[in-house]
Amino acid sequence: MRGWFVALVLTAASAASLSGCGKNEKPPPPLEGATTGQESGPRGSHGSVAGSGAVAGTGGGAMAGNMAAGSGEPPPAEKMFMTVCATCHGQDGTGNGPVAESLNPKPRNYTDKAWQAGVTDDELKKIIVQGGHAVGKSPMMPANPGLKDQPEVLDGLVQIIRRFGK
């Protein structure tokens, strides 16, 4: 229980600090089926439409321009990545998020092509849902059991992680 509390506190504290992160970071290519902000109308399997804005407070970071249909909000997976995952893994996926400095071991670098080639999508989903400790990885990676019943968000997170390896 103490581990959850520490992870929750670190996540909340670092989420507040994200507003200044990513101002000079080059975003990775958009999700497959997502728009670039130069098109109009509904697009792709994610329900994305052309958007001109970035995720609020990200300074145009990794998820810029991918808005959910008609809502002005980013798709749920992108929102989760920017508010939860990026606190450790960074907006650029290199494991340099605001909390990363205090973690040992350091968060996974998603841009590592050898690692990307050695892990399956199903393994990524299992790590995301069950946490690092449950699969023999770092106990610093918290479990996200609520995502088990949200396959579209889980699939979107895997797509984001895979995009960093391209």
Structure description:
This protein has 166 residues and is mainly alpha-helical. It has one domain (2-164). It is 36% helix and 5% strand. The chain has helices at 2-17, 76-89, 113-117, 121-130, 151-164, and strands at residues 42-43, 48-50, 66-68. The chain has a 3-stranded antiparallel β-sheet with strand order 1-2-3, with no helix packed on it. A hairpin with a 4-residue loop joins β1 (42-43) and β2. The model is unreliable at 12-25 and 31-65 (pLDDT under 50).
Key phrases:
5 helices, three-stranded antiparallel sheet, 36% helix, mainly alpha
Poorly predicted tracts of residues: 12-25, 31-65
Which word captures the global form?
globular
In which range does the helix fraction lie? 25-40%
Main sheet, how many strands, which sense, barrel? 3 strands, antiparallel
- Which strand order does the major sheet show? 1-2-3
Q: What is the chain-wise order of helices and strands?
A: HEEEHHHH
Work out the number of β strands.
3
Question: How many domains make up the coordinates?
Answer: 1
Can you describe this structure in just a few lines?
The chain is mainly α and 166 residues long. The chain contains 5 helices and 3 strands.
Write the layout of secondary structure elements.
Elements: H1 2-17, E1 42-43, E2 48-50, E3 66-68, H2 76-89, H3 113-117, H4 121-130, H5 151-164
Antiparallel strand pairs: 1-2, 2-3
Helix pairs in contact: 2-5, 4-5
